[in-house]
Design brief:
Layout (H helix, E strand, L loop, with lengths): L1 H10 L6 H4 L14 E7 L4 E8 L4 E8 L10 E5 L11 H4 L2 H4 L6 E5 L15 H7 L7 H17 L5 E6 L1 H12 L6 E5 L8 H13 L4 H5 L5 H5 L14 E5 L19 H31 L6 E4 L7 H19 L2
Parallel strand pairs: 4-5, 4-6, 6-7, 7-8, 8-9
Antiparallel strand pairs: 1-2, 2-3, 3-5
Helix pairs in contact: 1-11
GO molecular function: acyltransferase activity, transferring groups other than amino-acyl groups
InterPro entries: AB_hydrolase_fold (IPR029058), Esterase-like (IPR000801), Mycobacterial_A85_antigen (IPR050583)
Protein name: Esterase family protein
Length: 341
């Protein structure tokens, strides 16, 4: 195992750039109104932006919703999470992929949170002043409560859904996806995690989490308590693999070596050599670490008899959007079948 860790440990120093590329004890709350939609703003095509009040976070949360063409017939819902940037920057599904076009002929509601940067979409033990200052909010992060308890009933009621849900996410949020399915095993019918690190409590995972949170000025001890403590283990999908729900899952990573999308001719790079080298060096190192975590999770789930989980382990590919767009396309048949659409 030490030989496996050697390469990824060298990559830990690169993990702080994850947001640039992809970019417990619950806190007590006072009485607050129920979760509800407080605004709707039409977007392009069948896209709209909504804000939903979160009682647990005591603030309004922005989300993008992609509606199906046929809104008269109930459709299921895919919750699609952005990476470390939380959709609050240009590193988002909408800006970097063909998500809107891809789902245009799919009978599904796609709900994309536009907040949650550096939060791991988890319930934090304490408010965080650093994240509050950087992101301009109150520092309360109760994302698991919001995503699994507050938001789904609001979406179901507002858009007349079938009540069937799936969840997918990249990078930081890929880790969150697995953790959320453990927290709410009855909520999701399928899940997809692209280029995440499921090992949040080993030294590599702790370094990954701590560095990503620190990019937002946050303190990871406000999230899960002292490093190495029980909450870090509780939110470690590798350690908690026996609690992963028996639902279809797609989990992917690349080796970190240059691949199809790592050329100057890739449309996202637009011939920019600096961006290309950043993607090759930084993105390659990050993806190598994610690949280590993903392979370890595959071994662990196989030991538990979970041979049904689809692991897409690519021999090449960096931590970048071209591969995540491919993953979204490849995992959709699995997600769609589970959603019944």
């Amino acid at each position: 195992m030490n030989s496996l860790l050697r390469g990824p440990r060298r990559a830990v120093v690169l993990l702080a750039s994850a947001a640039l590329l992809s970019l417990g004890t619950a806190a007590t709350t006072t009485a607050d109104p129920d979760a509800s939609i407080v605004s709707r703003t039409p977007g392009t095509g069948r896209s709209l932006e909504i804000t939903v009040h979160s009682p647990s976070m005591q603030r309004d949360i922005a989300l993008q919703v992609l509606r199906p063409a046929d809104t008269r017939t109930p459709a299921p819902t895919l919750y699609l999470l952005n990476g470390a940037g939380g959709g609050e920057d240009a590193a988002s599904w909408s800006a970097q992929t063909d998500a809107a076009g891809f789902f245009a002929d799919k009978h599904v509601n796609v709900v994309i949170p536009l907040e949650g940067a550096f939060s791991y979409y988890t319930d934090w033990q304490q408010p965080d002043a650093g994240l509050a200052e950087k992101l301009g909010n109150n520092g309360r992060n109760m994302w698991a409560t919001f995503l699994t308890e507050e938001l789904p009933p609001v979406v179901d009621a507002a858009f007349g859904t079938t009540g069937a849900n799936a969840i997918a996410g990249i990078s930081m949020a890929a880790t969150s996806v697995l953790d959320l399915t453990i927290r709410a095993p009855e909520l999701y019918r399928a899940a997809a995690a692209y280029s995440g690190c499921a090992m949040t409590s080993d030294p590599l995972g702790q370094a990954f989490v701590t560095l990503v949170v620190s990019l937002g000025g946050g303190d990871s001890e406000n999230m899960w308590g002292p490093i190495g403590g029980p909450d870090w283990q509780e939110h470690d999908p590798y350690l908690q693999a026996d609690r992963l729900p028996d639902i279809p899952m797609y989990i992917s990573s690349g080796s970190g070596l240059p691949g199809l999308h790592d050329t100057a001719t890739d449309p996202r790079l637009r011939g920019n050599e600096k961006m290309l080298w950043n993607q090759l060096l930084v993105g390659g190192g990050i993806e190598a670490a994610a690949d280590y975590c993903t392979r370890a999770l595959q071994q662990r789930t196989h030991e538990l008899g979970r041979t049904d989980i689809v692991f897409e382990l690519r021999p090449s590919g960096t931590h970048s959007w071209g591969y995540w767009e491919d993953d979204l396309h490849r995992s959709w048949p699995l997600l769609a079948a589970a959603l019944g659409t």
